Structure formats: structure tokens, C-alpha cells
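Exercise 7.
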Amino acid sequence: MTRTATLKERLANGWIVGDGAMATLLHQIGVPARTCFEGLCLSQPEMVRDVHRAYVAAGAELIQTNTFSGHRVGLARYGITAHLKELNQTAVRLAREAVGESGAFVLGTVGSTSDLGAGDREQPASNASLSDIFEEQMTALLEASVDGLLLETFSDLEEMMIALETARRLTSLPIIANLAPDVVGVTRDGYSVVDAFATMRLAGADVVGLNCRLGLSGILRTYEKFTLNSDFIYAAYPNAGMLHYSDGDYSYTADAEYFAEVGGQLAARGIRVLGGCCGTTPDHIRRLKQRMESGHVESVLDQSGSGKGSLSASTKTIATVEVQPVTKVQDAAHGQRPSEPSTFSLLESVRQRMSIVVELDPPKTLDVTKYLAGAAALREAGADAVTLADNSLGTVRVSNMALASMLKQNGIEPLVHVTCRDRNLIGQQSHLMGLHVLGIHHVLLVTGDPSRFGDLPGATSVYDVSSIELTKMVKRLNAGIGFSGQPMKYPSRFIIGTAFNPHVRHFDKALERLRRKLDAGADYVMTQPIFDIRLFEPIARAAEEYGAPVFVGIMPLVSARNARFLHHEVPGITIPESILRQMLEADPESAADVGLDIAKTLLNEARNYFNGIYLITPFLRYDLTTELTRHLREQQGVATPQRATV
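Solution. The predicted structure, written as C-alpha cells, is:
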């Protein structure tokens, strides 16, 4: 069949069927799950070409290049970024060869970077670098003469807008832009799908749509929630049902007949670009095409009032687009938020006077008697809050949530560390919600030391997100939006801390990382233990522009061995040679006293720069941090803190 129309003309003329999955189909025919499927364009080109041909034979008119993760972020996971241009352009050639004289169109596919977990999860790309990442791949695809671009599986509207604006700057070719929300009607970053579509259309998308995660039913239900705009062209590329695990392998639940049935329902609502995502096969696309050609769908399309969408706005380019967020749940919630007792705010405290937080690590045994006694002693000495690490150094300890609840019941304000290491996003949000209902609002969000360094080296480190990403997500909880983008009944009230490690080779890079955390929404900063007074001033200056209080970390040393271990073996701690020498020269019986004197000297200097002090208790030796707390209160001129009732 000879092509008689451009892709833009074809999109403007009735429904069109796209292809289905590439990676999951390749897996079904024997390619291992953890393969770089994009890399097969170079290593197994005939296999990729055969998949394209199968979809063309099934009736697909839109063929996607095998380049979903063909950008720098995706290819970095496999060490093949040097082949980025060659890979993307080879992918276009393979699709062209498969299309042949069929008249089908080739779309250069660009996927999201947000869920790949590649590279350094603690240094997410800025908007500028994301634009560069997308531009690099898009340029390679466009140079190979694709007929248009397909942006797909973007869970966040904000990342989609970066990709879309980059694409529209580079080309006037048609762009199909598909979001992939986790829940019906709302993007992961909290925008309604209706508002997101309108924003994407203004930014130059010719077709706006949904693909992947919601599956058939979820995508249909999303489109059923609003009236389609007759000036828009909408797309749907659902998964073949839900993913499930059976007999040692993963598969999808929907057969081709059911897929085509729901595809027909989507078409009846006015969805004009239809294809498949994960789990779909050429058989799914063949049955969908047959359904569309049956004539029944076309008659429903005509009755819907959405039969033809205009492309008049598709070439508009705007520098910035104002995105309207989904209605905040506190405005839409039924009834009033449950009343809560007055709680102590560390932020308010530290802005008024010197405030002291003391870390007391949960014990490694089930006997918590000494721990509770230590927390009580610290409160009596004048500590504003006791902070509890989250299985520090990857070592199993009593749950800090359980102990925090016990402290709260005893009138002691807990500040709970939350690591990215131990929980996936489901567990993470559940954990935070649990903290909140217990009345625990102060949290410190940290990456967490890798499991392989702890006492269960075979345990898996999760790291679904970085501490920066988790900070953004908890700020969304405070706006009443769950991690998935689903509105909650009312917002949380977390006061979010972030950690700062100045003990790195390039201090400027550490400061830049701190700024990204503060930009993400952190309310205050807690530093690693600092033993070099020269670091106080630059740290204080770094957070000044944000108005974020800094709690400077001070840890009393207890022995020469302790000092050497911290300096040489614990990530994030550096001890100056002069202090190491003092500890090495100290009599073992009096080494802890020497360590206390060093800590007091550091504290006296720290008070010139910081209103917040963070004391770290070594080995549950709360007698040491109790003495330092009293020392600080005496210097301040008060015996005990004057703070709100907890």
C-alpha cells in the first residue's frame, strides 16, 4: 500500500490503530527480563525488525521505534551511552524496513526517565539537564527521518512538559504525548488528567493520551470521568490487563478478545488513536483492528460528537505553561479535619532560641528499658527532641516508629529518621501515615546506608526514590496528595528535615546537593557529626538564603579506637588530625572525658553560628549527651527548656 497522506493528515481523519508492546513481547519469546531491549537494535536487529513486521501484518498503522529507554539515563544502566545516536538511528532504520510499502508511519519513541533508577539516584536531573537528555535522543531520531514523535509512560506532568517543550522546539512534526498515571484521573505529581491534557495541548501536543499502568479498565474509567474536548485528539495505549506472577514468570491477564472489546468501548467514547502497551501482542492489535473495522465503532464515534479533532493548535510553542494543580483535598474534603492536640514545633522553637535535638539510637535487643531511661534523662536535662535513626549503618534495631510512639506517650518529642533503603513506595507512604496518626510529625528523610554494609548483607536495599524525591513526595502529603497522586481526605503536617554531609572531596558539590534538597521542600537541616570548626561558617551561609534552620551535629568521642573507627570506616565522618592525636594520647580511663571536653569546645564555637544543636549519643552512652545538654543550657542561662506542652 502506498502512503497517500502525511501523518498529520491521517491523524485528522478518523481512528488509527498503533502497535503493541516491544519489550514484553521479546521477553515472551525468550529474551531475559533484565536485558537492555533497546540494545537489541544493535545486537539482534533481525529480532526487533521481526516484531515490527508482525505488528504491521496485524494492521498497525503507527509503528514505534524500539527506543523507549534509548536516552542517556536509560542506556547508562547498561554502559552503552556511547552508542546512543547509533542505536536510535538504527532503531528508525529497522522500523522503516519493517514498514516497507505498507503505508504505516514510524514514530520515534521517547520514554520517561523518572522510574528507571539509573545512575546516582541521589542526583536527579535538573529541568535543564532533563531537557538536554531528551534533546540528545530526539535529535538522533529526527535526523533519521521519523514521521513523528511518541512521548510515553510519563507519570509526572512536569517531566512530560519538559519533554514536550523540548520536542516542539526541535520539530513541527506531529507529537503524541501519553501520560501514565498510577491512579484514575490524577498524575503522580498531583495534577488532574483533564488539566494536564489541556496544558499539554497548549504546549504543542497533537495527540494527548494515556498508556501503560492503569490498564484497560483504569484508562477507560479515566476517560469516563470527563467530557472529551471535540478539538482534541485522544489516545489510549493500555497494558493487556494486570501484571501477575505465575509459574516463575510474569504475564498479563487480558486476552486479545477482551482487549479488543475494551478498545471498542474507548473508541465509542471518542478515543481515536488506539494501541497497546505492556503485555500486548500482534494478536491483540489484530483483534483490535478487526473490531475497529467492523463498522459498529464508527457509528458510535459519529454520535459522540468527538469524531474529528482539530490540529489547529498543534504547532503552538510557548516558553512557559502555567499548570493548574488538582484541587487540594483540604478544599474538597468532606467535613472538618479531625482536631489534634497542640504539638511542639521544632521550627518555631529554633527560630526563637537555641534548640537541642539528641540522637539516641534504638537498641539492637528487645530490652528497651535503658533506652527509655536515657530518653527521660535527656528530656530532664533540657533536650527539645530525641531523634531516632532508622536501622543506622544497615544494622537491625528496634523499630523507631514503635519507640517514637512510646516516647510520645511519655511526653518526649520524637524526631524519626526515615530511610529510602528499607521500604518501597507502598511501605514508605504507609509508614509515614502511621507516624502521622501516632502524632509524630518531625521526620528526617535520609538515603540510608546500603544493606550490604550491615549485619544482614544479603538483604535488599530498595531505594525506590532518592531522599530528594522522597522530600517532594512528603511535601505532597502535606498538600493532601498521596505518592500516587491520589487525593487524601486531609493533609499531613510533617516538618521535614534533611541531612547534610560536608565531609566530601568537593565541598561545593555537597552544598549544591543541599540546595537541591532545600529546593525540594526540606524545612530544616541536620548535619553529620562535625569535628572541624572551620566548617561551621560555610555551612551556616549555605542555608541562610533559604531561611532553613541548621542543627549542627556534635558527637562526643569515647576512646581512641572509637575516633579511629569513625574517621576511617564510617561514611560521612572526618576527624581532624589534631583531635585524633588528643584521643590517641589520652589515658584510656579518661578518654571519654577528653572527648567531652572536645565536644564542649566545638559546641561553644558552634553557638556563634547556629541556633540548632544536634547531639549524637555514642553506644547508648546517654550520660555523655545528657552532660552536653546541661552544658548548653547552662551556657544559655536556663536550667530546662521553656517549650510548648507535647
